[in-house]
Each structure stands twice: as C-alpha cells, then as structure tokens.
Design goal:
about 450 residues; mainly alpha; globular
C-alpha cells in the first residue's frame, strides 16, 4: 500500500513539474495582452486588474503553508480589488477627484500589475519550507538573558511614554486637529517593533515574561489608536502573529479574523477623522458607505496616481528623478528633518495636487526609474521571499521578520521602511549580540 501511495505522489509531482511551465507561459501571454490593452485603451483596464487579482490568488495558493506570506498577498489583494471595482463598476473610490480617471489610474494599475507579475514569475517556496505549521520564529533562536530582556522592556516603555504625546483624538476632536509632540521631534514610535523583537529573543518562556510582553503590546496599540494611528498597531499585530501564532490557526479561522481586523481599522479610520462629543455610533451609521471601510486602499491608489503624474506629465527630467532616488537612499541614514523635500516623492507631489497620503511601492519605483524600477523592486521582493529558506544568519532572519511585519507601511506608504526600519532592526540585533558577548565574558571571568 505504501508503494502505491509513493507512486501516486511521484506521479503528481511529475505532472505538477510539467504543468508549471505551461501555466507560466499562459500567464505571461495573458498578462502581456491585458497590459497592452490597458496601455492602448485605459478604459479597458478591468481585465488587467482582474489578472492582477488572479496572480495574487495563485501566489497565495503557491505559498499556502507559509501563513505570514499568504497574509502579505491577501493584503495586496485588497488594493487590486479596489481597481477592479473602479474599472468594472465605474465607481469613484476616492474622496479626491482631480486624478481619479481611467488615464491616471491605468498607470497605477500597470505598475502594480507588473510588480505582482514579477513576484508571481520568480517567487517559489522550496519543499524545505513549504510545509504545514511552518513558522519563521523556528529560525530565530531564543536566548534568555535577564539584562537584555530588561533593557528591551525599558526601551519599549520609554517609546510608549515619549514616542507620541499631546492631545489624542478624543481631546482634540479628530485626527490631525490637536497638538502632538515627539521625543526630540523624532518618529521613534515605530521603532517599538525592533525592541519587541529583541524582547522575544531574550525573554524566558515563562508566564511572567509573556504577560509583560502582552501588556506592553496592548499599551502600545491602545495609545496608537487613541492618537489616530492604525498602521503601527497593524504591524505589531502581524509581528505578534509571526512570533507566537503562525501555523497554529486554520485558514477558515485566520482569514475571517484578518477580515474583521481590516474592517475594524477601516471603521476606526472613518471614526478618527471627526470624533463626536457624544461618541454616538449613529453618527457613523448614517449614510454609511461600505467602500469607506477600504478607504485606506482607495486613497493609497489615488496618491499613487498623483505621484506618478510627476513622470507621466514630464514635470521633471530623468536626471532629477535619479537625484531624488539618491536622496531617498541617503534618507535611510539621515533623519527626515535634515533632508530636502526632493528625498520624499509625496512632498514633491503635494506641489501638484492635494491627496490623503501614502502610495504603492510600485509607484515610487516607476516614478524614479520607469518600468525598469518596477521590475527591480519586484525581483527584490521575490528574492526576499525565496530567501526564507536561507537561515545562515540570525541577522538575516531578523530582517525577514521585520520585512514580513511592516509590509503595510512599505507596500502602501513608503518603501523607506523596507530599507530603514528593517535595516535598523538588524543593527540593533547585532548591538545586542555584542552586549551579550561582553556579559558572557564577564561572567566567565
């Protein structure tokens, strides 16, 4: 009987290996046709939007045993679906109108679809990691250390207390309406994630340590939401999932929970804009628009259209775009307040038109380098995913965990998070490793 089962598995693997090239060729052909159709007739872009969703669904099935990666693709789907709605149903999805048309949105769609196509073409899990109950935490070896755990906890408390202060949305009446202060005017609140990861590395597996981590995470999320934030909370929740829960839920439980979280954050985004004095939920149910739940995705798409117009309308030369790209990478090492406006495409684009904020990672690289830039970042993301099996360095695992935790920021707002926050996480890890080695030497002596 076992021989029969082995034979069936072997035959299935052989058929899959033969079918994959056929699927790739067919997918590439359909993508090319839809891409060309969108370029020639922007109002016919719905087919390319649908193809983008299909690619993301196929990627989710391909990586089905690695839940943290599947959640990344599901998050990307929520953006692509908004473009399907825009083109398929001729529905306005954004509050802003100036750049909300077939022409500009088609550029956003083509850069996004090319990014997803490159990932679909090159990102494949190996048999060594594509197994049930996979968890990236398995490769981040815990090393309990009281001193370093206490240091991590102390820094997390400091960030919660000083990272953002002033008037919360309940005191000011809404997001962006009050006075906010930050420690030394630095955006340190987001760096909580780095020290949460260090806390996980050096904590004991006992109840008290876990409770300390849970309480700090809860305080961080509550304060972030009270000041109108959402993305920072979402990123911490994703990191908690990767470190403690990945592989422990079936998708029939995980996906509905994820949807509930997205809906809650969408509703919070609607609520935070103008907080009623009586906080009556009826104020928000009247005239409720279901698409408003996904307003973040809609506004990200609109922002992408405004930013890409810098290249589409030839407002700057290629030399100027290259200069902006260089300044962008310089900003990885220099605080934003010391950088010129040209280091941030969102700041440059606001000279053209108003928009909510954010923007797809594909629009950044398209604006800087055209479609070549989109191909580059698509290959980079595919390489990072394929690198999940390479566990030679704990520092690289730190980078992977950071990348898979903060994708709401680098995919929807700014790719700087992919290179700055995640890279800083690796630097902090090696500083802690250095301190760990010093403590060990002193203990031996």
């Amino acid at each position: 009987m076992s021989q029969v089962v082995k034979a069936i598995k072997f035959e299935k693997a052989r058929v899959d290996s033969l079918g994959q090239p056929v699927k790739v060729i067919a997918g590439a052909l359909l993508f090319t046709i839809c891409f060309a159709l969108s370029s020639a007739y922007p109002d016919k872009s719905v087919y390319l939007a649908i193809m983008t969703v299909i690619f993301l669904i196929d990627l989710s099935l391909r990586w089905k045993n690695i839940q943290s990666v599947v959640l990344l693709f599901v998050y990307m789907v929520t953006h692509a679906v908004m473009l399907v709605i825009f083109y398929g149903y001729n529905v306005h999805i954004s509050f802003y109108k100036a750049f909300q048309n077939d022409f500009y949105f088609s550029y956003v769609l083509r850069s996004l679809s090319l990014l997803i196509f490159m990932i679909w073409l090159f990102a494949f899990p190996t048999n060594s990691i594509n197994r049930k109950n996979f968890g990236l935490r398995q490769f981040f070896t815990p090393k309990p250390n009281k001193i370093l755990f206490f240091a991590s906890v102390s820094i997390m408390i400091f960030i919660i207390v000083t990272g953002v202060a002033g008037e919360n949305i309940f005191q000011s009446g809404g997001y962006g309406q009050g006075t906010i202060t930050r420690f030394l005017n630095l955006a340190i609140y987001k760096y909580f994630l780095i020290f949460f990861l260090m806390g996980f590395k050096y904590m004991k597996g006992n109840f008290i340590s876990k409770m300390i981590m849970a309480v700090l995470a809860l305080l961080y999320v509550v304060k972030n939401l009270s000041f109108g934030g959402r993305i920072e909370s979402l990123q911490l929740i994703i990191m908690i999932f990767i470190l403690f829960l990945e592989g422990k839920f079936k998708y029939r439980v995980l996906l509905p929970l994820g949807l509930i979280l997205v809906v809650f954050l969408g509703l919070w985004g609607m609520f935070r804009g103008s907080v009623s004095s009586d906080l009556s939920i009826l104020n928000y149910l009247r005239g409720f628009n279901p698409l408003g739940v996904f307003a973040t995705q809609s506004e990200v798409i609109y922002s992408s259209a405004v930013i890409q117009s810098l290249r589409i309308d030839s407002l700057y030369s290629q030399e100027e775009f290259l200069n902006m790209l260089v300044l962008f990478f310089v900003s990885v090492f220099v605080p934003s307040r010391f950088m010129p406006q040209e280091a941030y495409l969102t700041s440059v684009a606001r000279n053209v038109s108003g928009f909510g904020g954010g923007g797809l990672i594909s629009r950044y690289f398209y604006t800087w380098l055209g479609y070549f830039g989109v191909v580059f970042i698509g290959l980079w993301i595919a390489m990072l995913l394929n690198g999940l099996e390479r566990r030679r360095s704990q520092g690289f695992v730190v980078y992977q965990i950071m990348i898979l935790s903060v994708y709401p920021r680098w995919f929807s707002y700014s790719p700087i998070t992919m290179f700055k926050l995640s890279f800083y996480g690796v630097i902090v890890y090696f500083i802690f490793r250095f301190l760990e080695a010093i403590f060990a030497l002193r203990k031996e002596s």
